[in-house]
Write a structure and sequence with these properties.
Elements (H helix, E strand, L loop, with lengths): L1 E3 L7 H10 L7 E4 L4 H9 L4 E4 L4 H32 L4 H11 L4 H8 L3 H15 L4 H11 L8
Parallel strand pairs: 1-2, 2-3
Length: about 160
């Protein structure tokens, strides 16, 4: 999206904030004839791809659009991966959810078993099953998945 900083009725920066608050993730390129450094910093911190000043050079606009399209493509890939992970996460049993939370929080199998009131072997079976269902090849990958899913790893520590 290419936005002018000065829009009728609302500033481009305010519109950017509205999009963010609405959960709309779209790369934004700002253009302005009346910009300043604080304005450009605010736009860039909020995720703008570029902040161009008028008069515009055609190549600058094309370069910014190319970067925006690349960023949008990468975001789309991350969104698809997250949706697939969420779908796999939904296949876990309640006990597997519990075990995942403890494992992601750094608990050993024995500690997890004690917290859940089950045997260590039972925890190992649940851990194996949940890692297989999620496609996690290591505990580190499982922790990254837990973070991506928004699982609060600190609540049980």
């Amino acid at each position: 999206m290419i936005l002018d900083v000065r829009l009728p009725g609302v500033s481009g920066l305010a519109f950017q904030t509205e999009l963010i608050n609405a959960g709309i993730q779209i790369p934004i390129i700002f253009i302005t004839g009346h910009g300043d450094i604080p304005m450009s910093v605010r736009a860039m911190k909020a995720g703008a791809v570029e902040f161009l000043t008028k008069p515009l050079r055609g190549q600058d606009v094309l370069d910014a659009v190319r970067v925006a399209l690349e960023r949008a493509g990468k975001q789309r890939e991350r969104d698809i991966e997250l949706q697939a992970l969420q779908a796999r996460f939904q296949t876990l049993t309640d006990r597997e959810h519990d075990v995942m939370t403890f494992v992601a929080a750094g608990f050993m199998n024995r500690q997890t078993a004690a917290k859940l009131g089950v045997s260590e072997v039972t925890v190992k079976v649940h851990r194996h099953n949940l890692m297989a269902k999620l496609g996690a090849r290591s505990v580190q990958q499982l922790v990254r998945m837990a973070d991506a899913l928004g699982i609060d790893r600190s609540k049980r520590v």
